[in-house]
Amino acid sequence: MDIRLIEISPINLNWSDWHKWEAFARDARSDPNGIILPDEPGVYEARLVNTEERLTIGKASNLRMRVKQGLVKGKVSHSSGKDIREKENTALVVIRWATTQRPAAVEEELHRRYVEVFGKLPKYTDRT
């Protein structure tokens, strides 16, 4: 059997501030209160204001499409977006993001750390 050690270098995340859900629904091209997300790969988290538990932790090959168009607006398929839009008071939901060239690896590690603290995945996250 050929066994090799794989060493993965650290990944530094520069998280954005937390922003209100409704700011993502605004068109940032014409509304100064809208959020401009990068067309880059990354990870994101959504939670209710003043809580540490997350509603979802996800990855994206394009943060703008995944978060704005999928999670918030529902214009493209999103595994937890529909449930959050239907079951939560989105006026109380905040979202943050970080760009990374390795979103799958980062999402997996964020899920692992979350389970260590809370004993389960975020409320609307089904799998890693």
Summarize this structure briefly.
By secondary structure, the protein is α+β, with helices and mostly antiparallel strands. The chain has four helices and four strands, in the order E-H-E-E-H-H-E-H.
Taking all Cα atoms into account, the compactness measure Rg is: 15 Å
| Tally of separate domains | 1
What's the order of the H and E elements? EHEEHHEH
Strand order of the largest sheet: 1-4-2-3
CATH homolog superfamily: GIY-YIG endonuclease
Biggest sheet statistics: 4 strands, antiparallel
Low-confidence stretches: none
Mean of the pLDDT scores? 95
Which architecture does the CATH hierarchy give at level 2?
3-Layer(aba) Sandwich
CATH topology category name: GIY-YIG endonuclease
Distance between the termini: 28 Å
Shape: globular
Strand content: 15-25%
Number of strands: 4
How much helix is in the residues? 25-40%
Give the SSE layout.
Layout: E1 19-20, H1 21-25, E2 42-48, E3 54-60, H2 63-72, H3 81-87, E4 93-99, H4 103-118
Antiparallel strand pairs: 1-4, 2-3, 2-4
